[in-house]
Amino acid sequence: MQTDDLLGDVEDLGSKLAEARKMVGRKIMGQDRVVDLTLAAILAGGHALLIGLPGLGKTRLVETLGTVMGLHDGRIQFTPDLMPSDILGAEVLEESDSGARSFRFIKGPVFCELLLADEINRASPRTQSALLQAMQEHEVSVAGHTHDLGEVFHVLATQNPLEQEGTYPLPEAQLDRFLVQIDVDYPDRDAERDILLATTGTEDASVSPIFSRAELIAAQTLLRRMPVGESVVEAILDLVRACRPDDPSAPQIVRDNVSWGPGPRATQALMLLARARALLDGRLAPGIDDIHALAAPVLSHRMALGYAARAEGIDLPDVIGQTVASVLQTEVAA
């Protein structure tokens, strides 16, 4: 593909994404940042973990995105008694009219294109781990047989940050499979007024598809072909490596307070999401500002504070913020 063709396709995709954002805005009000990060995760072909209190529109967002992006969506309500077979499916023994017996695989709700894993931390670790293979490899293994989930598969999981009784923290291996962690906050007063008027009347706003499945796959392919400047690549590497406490480039605040840092998936996530953010803003290539904006959503679930730091009340977002300011300010100056 020639450079001019690539730029033209990127511009066309940017226009289509603007339509998609406007369509989502009919249903989701006052959460522009949440919508953009979730759209970016889907464009990048990844999964997102949405953390917020009940009633902030997380489930509504997933359902709306399924329609707008032309995806078949599914939902699993995670509970303590949920079993892996309730997610993946199971093989059942059937007997034909002739008396012959054979096993038939019955697909579980994971066989969709956009999966809402509602309150994912309420299920046991055994059940949570049922999603690991699906999220990474787009396939599941049941009774020694592998079943493909398809080229398009995204998990949008929700989690309540306050109600921790009867919940199981997600293991680090599963957290790392989420491209981004999205904190869903309360809307401002004006947005809440719009929500109040829009949702208590006799009619609810409707949305229609903007993308088809094929168009989304084409968009995900195009995103990976977007050019990224060498300075942005170096900024990503410098930032992620600086967040590892045993790395020589780590600042003192990371060495003193962080027990473990992000792995290579964090660099991949920053690269893909920076491209997606540029597309959503109508730009042809990402810049250092994109890395600034995406650092906390990409890194916060891939790092952990040590016991002493938690006891002293040190905040992980502050550690990330100071590290970003230190590392990326150096990049800008260079």
Automatic annotation (TrEMBL):
Pfam families: AAA_3, AAA_lid_2. Gene3D superfamilies: Magnesium chelatase subunit I, C-Terminal domain, P-loop containing nucleotide triphosphate hydrolases. One of its GO terms (molecular function) is ATP binding. Residues 44-188 form the AAA+ ATPase domain. InterPro entries: AAA+_ATPase, ATPase_AAA-3, CbbQ/NirQ/NorQ/GpvN, ChlI/MoxR_AAA_lid, P-loop_NTPase. This is AAA+ ATPase domain-containing protein. It comes from Aliiroseovarius pelagivivens.
